[in-house]
Every structure is written in C-alpha cells, then in structure tokens.
Amino acid sequence: METDAQKVMLESWRYRVQHRTNPLHVYCRLVDLGMGRFLSRKVCVLYERLIFPPGRREWRKD
C-alpha cells in the first residue's frame, strides 16, 4: 500500500517526466542547443508521431 508521501513523490516524478518528454519542451531544448528551428521542428514532429503519441494510456491520469 502506498503512503501519501509515496504518492506525492510518484506524482512529482511523473510530472517531471511528462514535462521533459513533451515534444514542445524537446523542441525548445534543441533550439537552445543550436539546432535550427526548421530541423528542430522536423525532428520533433517525427518524435511526436513515433514516440509520444497523444493519449497514451500510461500518461493519462485515471
């Protein structure tokens, strides 16, 4: 059985992972690293379609 502290920790960790793997966040980090906006956009479109499909069951909160 999970304690309240474990639930908070899990939710916090889950939020960070969701935020960091969000395609818009990835795009911004690629641009910050010096990749052009056009190429960053193309990479993130592929990333979003192949790796980060919308509505993934494991990301939804029930």
Written overview of the protein:
The protein is built from three helices and no strands. The mean pLDDT is 79. It is mainly alpha-helical and 62 residues long. Helix 2 (23-32) packs antiparallel against helix 3. The longest helix has 18 residues, at 4-21. The protein has helices at 4-21, 23-32, 37-50.
Essential attributes:
62 residues; mainly alpha; 3 helices; 0% strand; elongated
Uncertain runs are: none
Number of domains: 1
Query: Level of helix content?
Result: 55-70%
- Please tell me the overall pLDDT: 79
In DSSP terms (H or I, runs of 4 or more residues), the helix count works out at 3
Using only C-alpha atoms, the radius of gyration works out to 15 Å
Q: Report the order of strands and helices.
A: HHH
| β-strand amount | under 5%
Shape: elongated
Tally of DSSP β-strands: 0
Structural class: mainly alpha
Note the main sheet.
Answer: none
Please give the alpha-carbon distance between the first and last residues. Answer: 18 Å
Fold blueprint:
Blueprint (H helix, E strand, L loop, with lengths): L3 H18 L1 H10 L4 H14 L12
Helix pairs in contact: 2-3
Give a quick rundown of the structure.
The protein has helices at about 5-20, 25-30, 35-50.
